[in-house]
Design brief:
With 346 residues, this protein is of the alpha/beta class. The chain folds into two domains: 3-133 and 313-342, Alpha-Beta Complex (Quinone Oxidoreductase, Chain A, domain 1), CATH 3.90.180.10; 137-288, Rossmann fold (3-Layer(aba) Sandwich). It is built from ten helices and 15 strands. It has helices at residues 53-57, 113-116, 137-150, 166-177, 189-197, 213-221, 235-242, 273-277, 294-307, 323-332; strands at residues 7-13, 26-32, 41-49, 77-85, 95-99, 105-108, 119-120, 157-161, 181-186, 203-206, 226-231, 245-253, 281-284, 314-318, 338-342. The strands form three sheets. Strands 3, 4, 5, 6, 7, 14 and 15 form a seven-stranded mixed beta sheet that branches. Strands 10-9-8-11-12-13 form a six-stranded parallel beta sheet, sandwiched between helices. A two-stranded antiparallel ribbon has the order 1-2. α3 (137-150) packs across α9 (294-307). It is globular. The two termini are 19 Å apart. The chain binds NADP nicotinamide-adenine-dinucleotide phosphate. The site of NADP nicotinamide-adenine-dinucleotide phosphate (NAP) has 31 residues, from α3, α4, α10 and β15.
């Protein structure tokens, strides 16, 4: 059957949200699948990575990547298979990771391949969904954020927020492997129990346990202060950790999910003078800057998965059409592990 007989269901950005995205911010469209030109490939989506960053891509304005345009297919990374190839580096049936977009099929032409990030993946190193988690973009964020910016030393205390999420679960496990004491911060007892009992964190603070819970938890579990804070959430939790940092502490600004749906201006850190007092630093990280070194981190993490020192948890929701509701799970804490949208069965 020619590819053009296949119907591609897509989800496009219909409007820029104000606060939490609504159903009316999306439109559902269909299109025939395009045959690739010389050097191009056509891919079938198997699973998509749902990421907090998607909320930022829906906003107008300057960022590290241009916003998704109104009427465009929503940007999304994913994993899938090659169903047509006019490129000698890809064969029908290959498994790949790529910028698929929130749709069932995508055709990537030759000069778009590098920019798109299309690469083959090896399922001997990890499962399809692990390629969206520990071996994929969140895992790379955890690895390079912690190792390059955090520079962990054995015996240091590392605190990570969003501890049971995609990035956080991997940050904590790498820090343990590197000989650090690790304290997570997460929402609710189930997530806190999991990071301690399953992932081997030394402690986890439930920030939803009541007012003052983070401050009290840090005092109890970081008696010698905090050397590295891997910040996924921003807001008040960042201020609470700033109040407990050690001299020469490193704070990795990875994300600030508590602020992404704000309708008021972003809340900056009130306790920033703690950086001065402690000769400490805060540094932002954008994972794409490390693309040339992903293969090194993937090899190291695949080794840890194989020898059992690294675990990964994915929260898989089925169905492309559920995308608008499923995305919201990230912002109300309903996802438990890396949020994945299964679009088609392998
Ligand atoms: N800089 C980069 O290159 C880069 C790359 C990837 C990700 N990131 C950032 O890394 C962070 C984590 O991303 P992820 O993909 O791993 O997501 P995730 O942690 O798997 O999911 C998001 C989690 O954030 C927590 N959360 C939501 N609202 C919160 C709030 N108001 N206060 C505190 N926690 C809240 C929820 O967990 P609880 O149940 O614990 O509240 C939720 O499950 C995000 O900020 C993201 O933007 C940055």
């Amino acid at each position: 059957m020619p590819l053009t007989h296949l119907v591609n269901h897509q989800i496009r950005l219909a409007a820029r949200p104000n606060g939490m995205p609504k159903t009316s911010d999306w439109s559902h469209t269909t299109q025939a699948v395009a045959e690739p030109l010389e050097g191009g490939v056509t891919l079938k989506t198997l699973a998509l990575s749902l990421d907090p960053a998607m909320r930022g891509w829906m906003n107008e304005g300057k960022s590290y990547i241009p916003p998704v345009g109104i009427g465009e297919v929503m940007r999304a990374g994913g994993v899938g298979t090659v169903i047509a190839s006019k490129n000698e580096q890809f064969t029908v049936g290959d498994y790949v990771s790529a910028g698929f977009g929130v749709q069932e099929y995508t055709t990537i032409e030759k000069d778009e391949i590098k920019r798109n990030g299309l690469v083959k993946i090896d399922l001997r190193a990890g499962s399809l969904t692990q390629w969206l988690n520990v071996l994929g973009m969140p895992g790379m964020t955890a690895y390079f954020g912690l190792m390059d910016v955090g520079m962990p030393q054995p015996g240091e205390t590392v605190v990570v927020s969003g501890a049971a999420g995609a990035v956080g679960q991997t940050v904590g496990q790498i820090a343990k492997i590197k000989g650090c004491r690790v304290v997570g911060i997460a929402g609710g007892p189930a997530k806190c129990d999991w990071v301690v009992k399953e992932l081997g964190f030394d402690a986890c603070i439930d920030y939803k346990a009541g007012p003052g819970a983070v401050r009290a938890g840090l005092k109890e579990h970081c008696a010698k202060g905090v050397d590295i804070y891997f910040d996924n959430v921003g807001g008040e939790i960042l201020d609470d950790v700033l109040a407990r940092i050690n001299r020469k502490a490193r704070i990795i600004i990875c994300g600030a999910i508590s602020q992404y749906n704000n309708t008021a201006p972003v809340q900056g850190p009130k306790n920033y003078l703690s950086l001065l007092v402690n000769r400490a630093r805060m540094e932002g990280i954008v994972v794409f800057d490390y693309a040339d070194r992903y293969h090194l981190a993937v090899a190291e993490m695949a080794g840890y998965l194989k020898d059992g020192r690294m675990k990964s948890k994915e929260d898989i929701v089925v169905g492309l059409n559920t995308f608008p509701d499923t995305l919201l799970k990230l912002f109300n804490g309903e996802n438990f592990g890396k949020l994945v949208l299964e679009v088609a069965r392998d």
